[in-house]
């Protein structure tokens, strides 16, 4: 006879000293976990609910400007700093962590229209409606950390005069060129008072310009004649042009997939394009109910933030048709500029009500240093929500957002209008000869033509 | 499926030992995959297909990791009893086992003789650390089984029919003469559940925090013990019974009745989910296998039956009487009757139970309850003169999971687990026969034919519309009220006609079908007696 029975000595299964950690054991046998699927579903529901409870995205407002904030620029070299320019010509450097002005630049005579910082973070370039481009020295980080908000009333390092008002400026990545947009696109060097190059295609003014993060000589602009143009600095003429049905207010390149850019359009939508294939948008991002004013990609390239004339800020997945998140407050007016912070965890919006607002990029994220156990728990909850996101109850909780009444109503109205149009199209198609009416997909419908 | 079968060339290269290991791992992986993966071939959406295949791969990886953990990281090995030569395992006595095993295990063999208050019934906590015992004449005791110390003992001075622990060892419920009561570990009476009445049997659903009771009048009650809410109250209408058991796999409660039927209940429906006739006579005991697919029942006609709960089919008929039945964690079945306990085991893996062990207690003691102690190779026997404990090698799960049931739990861990289990408390709606349906989406059902009411409503609507049609003014003489009335009637009839025609057509079809089926149903030899057609 051979016999063995389970026998556990207490010493093997408990800790020796009170300072030790408790010993833990795992057994993943499915038979020991009864109703595991129901329990998991319940946990997913709880995770979705907890997410709603902890969703407090608004961190604070930064006031100081005395007119609407028109443009912002990130300091690529310093995480806490952000520049903002306002309609009265004021330029400020903010410390996001303390939410206060660190430095105030004398600025422009008229409105500041564009701001950008060089990649090394030492130079700030601003342009405005007073037909000047000004270069500023950015104070070093030690000054920013000191308590007194110094009035760096330093004169601009250089003032370059142009002929017409400027609408936008953007600095080259890893280079010393910057481009301004106005009546034409000018390419400037830091050290020369005259543009090194000028491009003009069409008659209307150019309203936004953005350099490609991957290929430093490529830039994209949008003009008020509803066109989006691609330029290559190595050749003297513009490369390609795309004309849409409505004006594009702002453009942002995807930093992780630098052949793709997303255009914030006047028709409430954003359109993601592949720069190599402009005849069709890759994705249409719908949800805003008024013109989208500004767009900025997260440094991760997985999502982007938009600010709109409908007084909301939305966050979209780079390939998602609808927004993941909407931010609004009672006091926030038309949003003119938005930026993702360089660590992808905050969003900053500048609006008509003279304030900059700081938001969390993930509404329910826990800030601060997380313990490993907390981290694991958050990851587990995230995975649960992701697994059960298609089930009606979880979906309802995750998707629900409270909206201000005017925005909600405008959204409903928009849906009704789109639906009516779709129905009308269907009927027209049904009552005409087969094949005579071709419905184009939404990705193509708003494009008029592409010019080489 | 996500796990890539490493067949083909690499397997031939491996030395035989490693091949064997990989085979062993494969069988283990199968357990952790929890069934077949989704069939992705039918999907047309490429994006969805990609996402799902990534997820299936992840499932495969995690199953493999779990299998490896089971193979290499488990601290204990299971018990066993093997006969050598002409020995038979069922002839091996407890004394013989006692001589072979270590001292700490041998301590688990004992008899407690309490002649005054028997017969006794037992219940273990899910970790197997604590035991509650109740004597019929009012003796309640809670024992710590690890160091064999009595935690609390009291005398309630009335009949106690059943005792069980709630979610942890701090609370236990006792079904007493008139009402069930809830006590805490110190013996303080916390609640008297008067609504339940004179309860014969109690059950507790751990995931749902539901206390289930069946009373003298055959009323089944579910009460939420967290908020005290009475979830449901059903009159079974099948008479008094004291055979009730919850299926641990899905939370369905089964009742065994004196008519030989077993009915299964969930708290959200007043009619049983299943009513199956298991025995020709009264049912004396029931037990569920921990994986939820097997049920054992025993009847007064001296039969023990093993049932497959997926097909509701009898798998095996074992002769023998059982007053009480219990499945162990590893699937051994204990059947107690008179003063003898028989242990059956499934050794072939084909769900055919055969003799494994047997044990006789002192002649004249009547066994009332057998219960395997979780995570130990121990069987507790409650009988008319106290309780006994014997060793059944290979009955318990050797490895416990600290987060599920920990025999060495500290009070801090217990508190934390209580909070977590309360957060994960399931709503009563999750009790159903097939719990794998939870978390899936019901497939869109095609719209059936319109019902009779819908058809009628449609006709009514058309008739109303027809009545409302304005009648044009015609030449003189045709506008008389009588003529208009006739005309209106005609309009209504015309509107009704298509509906009536359709109805007639359907009726004709139904009649024809019936006729055909009548003809078919007669055997050929009898068809010449079928009703002849009028013409023939």
TrEMBL record, chain A:
SMART domains: WD40. InterPro entries: Sof1, WD40/YVTN_repeat-like_dom_sf, WD40_PAC1, WD40_repeat_CS, WD40_repeat_dom_sf, WD40_rpt, WD_repeat_DCAF13/WDSOF1. Pfam families: Sof1 (PF04158), WD40 (PF00400). The keyword GTP-binding does not apply. Residues 361-447 form the Sof1-like protein domain. Belongs to the WD repeat DCAF13/WDSOF1 family. This is DDB1- and CUL4-associated factor 13. It comes from Populus euphratica (Euphrates poplar). The gene is LOC105128912.
From TrEMBL, chain B:
One of its GO terms (biological process) is maturation of SSU-rRNA from tricistronic rRNA transcript (SSU-rRNA, 5.8S rRNA, LSU-rRNA). It comes from the Eukaryota. One of its GO terms (cellular component) is 90S preribosome. Residues 355-435 form the BING4 C-terminal domain. Its main location: nucleus. The keyword Repeat applies. It holds the Pfam family BING4CT. WD repeats lie at residues 276-317. Keywords: Nucleus, Repeat, WD repeat. It is found in: Nucleus, Nucleolus. InterPro entries: BING4_C_dom, WD40/YVTN_repeat-like_dom_sf, WD40_repeat_dom_sf, WD40_rpt, WDR46/Utp7. This is Probable U3 small nucleolar RNA-associated protein 7. The lineage of its organism: Eukaryota, Viridiplantae, Streptophyta, Embryophyta, Tracheophyta. The gene is LOC105130670.
């Amino acid at each position: 006879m051979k016999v063995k029975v389970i026998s556990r000595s207490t010493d093997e299964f408990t800790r020796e000293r009170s300072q030790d950690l408790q010993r833990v054991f795992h057994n993943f046998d499915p038979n020991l976990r009864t109703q595991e699927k129901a329990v998991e579903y319940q946990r997913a529901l709880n995770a979705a609910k907890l997410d709603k409870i902890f969703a407090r995205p608004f961190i604070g407002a930064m006031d100081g400007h005395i007119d609407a904030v028109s443009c912002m620029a990130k300091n690529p070299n310093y995480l806490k700093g952000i520049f903002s320019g306002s309609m009265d010509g004021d330029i400020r450097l903010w410390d996001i962590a303390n939410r206060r002005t660190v430095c105030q630049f004398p600025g422009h005579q008229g409105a500041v229209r564009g701001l950008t910082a060089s990649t090394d973070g030492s130079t700030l370039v601003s342009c405005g409606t007073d037909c000047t481009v000004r270069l500023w020295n950015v104070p070093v980080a030690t000054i920013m950390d000191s308590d007194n908000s110094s009035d760096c009333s330093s004169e601009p390092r250089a003032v370059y005069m142009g002929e017409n008002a400027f609408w936008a400026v953007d600095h080259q990545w890893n280079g010393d060129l910057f481009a301004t947009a106005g009546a034409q696109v000018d390419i400037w060097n830091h050290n020369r008072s005259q543009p090194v190059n000028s491009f003009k295609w069409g008659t209307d003014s150019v309203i936004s310009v953005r350099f490609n993060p991957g290929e430093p000589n490529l830039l994209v602009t949008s003009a008020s004649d509803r066109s989006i143009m691609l330029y290559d600095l190595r050749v003297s003429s513009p490369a390609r042009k795309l004309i849409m049905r409505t004006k594009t207010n702002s453009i942002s390149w995807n930093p992780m997939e630098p052949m793709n850019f997303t255009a914030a359009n006047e028709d409430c939508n954003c359109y993601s394009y592949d720069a190599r294939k402009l005849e069709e948008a890759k994705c249409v991002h719908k949800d805003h109910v008024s013109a989208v004013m500004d767009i900025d990609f997260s440094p991760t390239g997985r999502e982007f933030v938009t600010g709109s004339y409908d007084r909301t800020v939305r966050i979209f997945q780079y390939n998602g048709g609808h927004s993941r998140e909407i931010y609004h407050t009672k006091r926030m007016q038309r949003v003119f500029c938005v930026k993702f912070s360089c660590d992808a965890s905050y969003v900053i919006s500048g609006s008509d009500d003279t304030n900059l607002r700081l938001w969390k990029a993930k509404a329910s994220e826990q800030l601060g240093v997380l313990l490993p156990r907390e981290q694991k728990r958050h990851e587990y909850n995230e995975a649960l929500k992701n697994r059960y996101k298609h089930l009606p109850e979880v979906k309802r909780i995750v998707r629900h957002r409270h909206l201000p009444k005017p925005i909600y109503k405008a959204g409903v109205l928009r849906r009704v209008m789109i639906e009516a149009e779709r129905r009308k199209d269907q009927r027209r198609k049904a009552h005409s000869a087969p094949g005579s009416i071709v419905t184009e997909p939404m990705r193509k419908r708003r494009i008029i033509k592409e010019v080489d | 499926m996500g796990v890539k079968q490493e067949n083909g060339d690499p397997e031939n290269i491996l030395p035989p030992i490693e091949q064997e290991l990989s085979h062993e791992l494969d069988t283990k992986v199968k357990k952790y995959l929890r069934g077949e993966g989704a069939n992705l071939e039918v999907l047309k959406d490429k994006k969805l297909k990609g996402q799902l295949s990534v997820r299936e791969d992840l499932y495969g990886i995690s199953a493999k990791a779990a299998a490896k953990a089971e193979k290499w990281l488990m601290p204990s090995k299971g018990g066993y009893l093997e006969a050598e030569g002409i020995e038979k395992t069922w002839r091996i006595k407890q004394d013989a086992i006692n001589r072979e095993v270590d001292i700490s295990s041998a301590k688990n063999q004992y008899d407690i003789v309490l002649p005054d208050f028997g017969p006794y019934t037992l219940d273990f906590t899910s970790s197997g650390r604590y035991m509650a015992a109740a004597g019929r004449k009012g003796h309640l005791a809670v024992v710590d089984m690890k160091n064999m110390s009595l935690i609390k003992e009291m005398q309630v001075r009335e009949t106690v029919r059943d005792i069980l622990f709630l979610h942890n060892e701090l609370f236990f419920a006792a079904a007493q003469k008139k009402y069930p009561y809830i006590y805490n570990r110190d013996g303080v009476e916390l609640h008297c559940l008067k609504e339940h009445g004179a309860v014969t049997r109690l059950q507790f659903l751990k995931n749902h925090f539901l206390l289930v009771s069946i009373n003298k009048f055959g009323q089944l009650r579910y009460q939420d013990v967290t908020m005290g809410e009475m979830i449901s109250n059903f009159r079974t209408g099948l008479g008094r019974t004291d055979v009730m058991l919850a299926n641990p796999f899905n939370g369905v409660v089964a009742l065994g009745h004196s008519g030989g039927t077993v009915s299964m209940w969930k708290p959200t429906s007043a009619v049983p989910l299943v009513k199956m006739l298991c025995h020709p006579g009264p049912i004396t005991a029931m037990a569920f296998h921990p994986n939820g697919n097997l049920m054992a029942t025993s009847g007064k006609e001296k039969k023990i039956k093993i049932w497959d709960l997926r097909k509701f089919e009898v798998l095996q008929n074992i002769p023998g009487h059982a007053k009480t039945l219990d499945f162990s964690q590893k699937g051994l079945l204990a059947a107690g009757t008179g003063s003898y306990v028989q242990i059956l085991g499934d050794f072939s893996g084909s769900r055919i139970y055969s003799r494994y062990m047997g044990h006789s207690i002192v002649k004249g003691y009547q066994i009332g309850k057998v219960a395997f102690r979780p995570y130990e190779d121990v069987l507790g026997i409650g009988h008319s003169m106290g309780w006994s404990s014997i060793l059944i090698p290979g009955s318990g799960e050797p490895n416990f999971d600290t987060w599920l049931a920990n025999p060495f739990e500290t009070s801090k861990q217990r508190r934390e687990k209580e909070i977590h289990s309360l957060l994960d408390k399931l709503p009563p709606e999750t009790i159903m026969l097939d719990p794998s349906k939870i978390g899936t989406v019901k497939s869109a059902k095609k719209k059936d034919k319109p019902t009779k009411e819908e058809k009628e409503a449609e006709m009514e609507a058309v008739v109303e519309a027809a009545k409302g049609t304005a009648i044009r003014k015609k030449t003189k003489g045709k506008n008389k009220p009588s003529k208009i009335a006739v005309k209106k009637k005609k309009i209504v009839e015309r509107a009704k006609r298509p509906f009536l025609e359709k109805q007639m057509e359907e009726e004709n079809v139904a009649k024809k079908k019936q006729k055909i089926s009548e003809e078919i149903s007669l055997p050929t030899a009898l068809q010449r007696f079928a009703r002849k057609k009028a013409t023939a």
